[in-house]
Design goal:
Elements (H helix, E strand, L loop, with lengths): L25 H13 L1 H6 L4 H10 L1 E5 L4 E3 L8 E14 L11 E7 L3 E2 L1 H6 L6 E14 H8 L4 H13 L8 H10 L1 E6 L3 E3 L7 E7 L1 E6 L2 E7 L6 E3 L2 H5 L6 E4 L3 E8 H8 L2 H6 L15 H6 L4
Antiparallel strand pairs: 1-6, 2-6, 3-4, 3-5, 3-6, 7-14, 8-13, 9-12, 9-14, 10-11, 10-13
Bound molecules: ligand 1OR.
């Protein structure tokens, strides 16, 4: 895992061009499946099963990459593709863009046949974390951001049903229609953190929304704990909506207190589509007309709302 925090907020990206899938031999299918399974970052967040892997193997198309081509450039905000290397070799390089003087780009390693790259920006809405250049003529399998999200990041039916139970435990989502709840459940990815881990830090750009389904976390502002959030068998809690709603940095750090904290994560794009106006949502009646007498949000959730 190379660092999962995103730093890009704001507007929606234009759709990436999707090309027609290319035929694959049995060996090529095996190589792609293994590459997906071996991508540690991808596996932290996407619960990859044979069905998802099979679907991805099916849609990928082939591209030939001449020696010297940079397929990915560090810092690019528009991230459209994820790649699996069929043959050839790629160099990973990074420049320390934080320093005033331009530091020479350092080669950090290489990616060979059976490797993959480009997942980080797609998973976390982050700028591209490194530059990836072909050091020899290469052949890659490619998939576009939308396919990557639809096929790998969407929960399967069993996961949806499981996520739905948690959605039901979070009073916040009560005003949603059943179909909206299901869409939300489908867009959720499980992410587990261990004690003392930081889910995110104050000042970061927020790219994800969290529902805490198990465990307890501390909300820390300017180094001081301001509150704790704890999931109980009856109640799941959400956090991380404010930075997304208001497109501003995280107002607090979330640190795990329990041995394990289990969360369901919704990325910024899905959040905007599905929960775009949480504030409005809290005012919307069960009938979805927008006319409601009392806030639909439970007091405990209301206390957290708009704070992180
Ligand atoms: P991306 O979408 O950010 C660049 O685009 C890709 O390079 C990235 O996804 C990874 O797939 C891949 N640090 C960051 N990105 C890396 C690294 C890396 N290695 C491969 N990628 N590091 C390891 C260097 C050997 C540095 C870790 C500190």
């Amino acid at each position: 895992e190379f660092g999962k925090r995103g730093a890009v907020g704001g507007g929606k990206m234009a759709a990436a061009e999707i090309k027609a899938a290319d035929h694959k031999t049995a060996d090529e299918k095996k190589l792609i499946a293994a590459a997906l399974k071996n991508n540690a970052n991808l596996n932290t967040i996407a619960n990859l099963d044979e069905e998802k892997i099979g679907a991805m193997v099916k849609v990928m198309w082939k591209e030939e990459v001449p020696k010297g081509t940079a397929l990915i450039t560090q810092g690019d905000l528009q991230a459209d593709y994820f790649y699996v290397v069929q043959s050839g070799s790629f160099q990973i390089s990074k420049t320390d863009s934080g320093s005033a003087e331009k530091v020479a780009s350092a080669a950090l390693g290489s990616i060979e046949a059976g490797g993959s790259f480009g997942e980080l920006a797609l998973l976390y809405f982050a700028p591209r974390a490194a530059t990836i250049t072909a050091t020899a003529a290469a052949v890659v399998w490619v998939t576009a951001r939308q396919q990557f999200k639809d096929l790998l990041m969407k929960a399967n039916e069993t996961e949806i049903q499981e996520n739905l139970k948690h959605v039901g435990r979070c009073g916040m989502f009560d005003p949603l229609k059943d179909s909206e709840k299901k869409e939300l459940a489908a867009a959720m990815n499980e992410m587990t953190f261990s004690k003392d881990e930081l889910v995110f830090e104050q000042g970061e750009r927020g790219t994800q929304f969290f529902v805490l389904v198990e465990g307890e976390v501390s909300v820390i502002k300017d180094g001081k704990e301001v509150t704790k959030i704890k999931a109980t068998p009856e109640k799941a809690h959400y956090f991380g909506e404010k930075a997304l709603l208001e497109d501003e940095p995280r107002a607090a750090t979330i640190k795990v207190l329990s041995t394990v904290a289990k969360t369901l994560v919704v990325d910024k794009e899905s959040f905007e589509i599905l929960l775009g106006s949480l504030q409005e949502l809290t005012r919307r009646g069960k009938d979805g007309t927008g006319s409601v007498k009392k806030p639909a949000v439970a007091p405990s959730a209301a206390a957290t709302f708009g704070k992180i």
